[in-house]
Amino acid sequence: MDLRTTEAGTTPPRWALTGAGGFLGWHVRVLALALGWPEPILVGRSELTDPEVVASRIDGVDRLLHLAGVNLGEPAAVAAGNRELAEVIADGLSRCSTPPGSVIFANSVLAGNGTPYGDSKARAEETLRAVRPDLVDIRLSNLYGEHGHPLRNGVTAIFCGLLADGRQPTVHEDRELDLVHVTDAAARLLGAPQAGPWDAAMPSLRLGVRALAERLTRYATMEAGGDVPDPADRHAVRLFNTYRSHSFTRRPPNRLPRPLRPAQLAALTSEGAPGARVRYVLRPGESWGGQFHLAAVRRLVVTRGSAEIALRRVGHHEVLRLTVDGTPAAVLDLPTMWTYRVTNRGSRESPCIVWQNDVSDPVPPDAWHHPVELPDPVRSGNGGLAVLA
């Protein structure tokens, strides 16, 4: 089945989603936001116990993405959890007067491998295919990416969490991994067109666990010293951004803009230096921003004056506000998938520089408009649907 997303100028799909609060679910919703899709109809854990409720939620949608699953816990609970979720979805599908146009299942490359998890995923596929022979079964490998939970989302998240806490990863068993960035997996699930910083073909990075620990340790050192990987190595940049998501949220001092040494300032401001740079001069009270990035490493440098930098992780309400006075010049590495805005809070002009590691010009560019402040979900009546996770 052709899952390509709608082209520009056509109506985005009406879609439903299970597992929206998980690691993959959050990234799917962030990418859908970038693609201009409407908010999905959410089918939560409490609703996945009643086929009638499921049917009422998914009836008439263009697409149903089933991401919810169980991968941690007692083996029997894992096996039963994935099987039961699929059974309720299948029962709900059979009760729809207008079944979804397509059903996409986030399966695993481990399906049918003889483990409770793998066999339960294979059984879930069989259960769904019994009622939807056209089921789109997408088998996902080891996913990594921004804001993975160290206890739930794989070895990359574990290593990043340790490094962000100032500890060193320990490798007990070295084995080969095929790592896929979670935005690429989201693009495959959504059928995203090849017109952005994602790859729905899900190109993998194959390396051992020990090599992964060593590479992430190197990136942690680079981040602390203000360096970035070669932008031509897309997995290097994405692993670097994955670590940055942990260092930004787990070590409060790293949230603050860092003073720039003269040599660093010269490297960011020199026309001959690597990367691309844009200069802004903000008048008193003037703002710039209101956007987020999916892959670009961007640095915001306030060279003079007093400014406020406001940031919000996409899908969350909390706004982080940082103040800089430009004495000395300060730099903030803007985390991916956080929308941001800089505002001149002083009484004189405040020059700023935005530096990006990648000088290429993707179509569309890796900048997606999204407000920093969200309306109050109670007063606005939007039911909190703007919050993704």
Task: Describe the 3D structure.
By secondary structure, this protein is α/β, with parallel strands linked by helices. The protein has 10 helices and 18 strands. Strands 2-1-3-4-5 form a 5-stranded parallel beta sheet, sandwiched between helices. The protein has a 5-stranded antiparallel beta sheet with strand order 9-15-12-17-10, with no helix packed on it. A 5-stranded antiparallel beta sheet has the order 14-13-16-11-18, with no helix packed on it.
**N- and C-termini, Cα separation:** 29 Å
**What gyration radius follows from the Cα positions, in whole Å?**
22 Å
The proportion of strand residues reads 15-25%
How many strand segments? 18
Query: What is the approximate shape?
Result: globular
Q: Main beta sheet: strand number and arrangement?
A: 5 strands, parallel
**Poorly predicted regions:** 1-8, 378-386
Put simply, the count of helices is 10
Q: Report the structural category.
A: alpha/beta
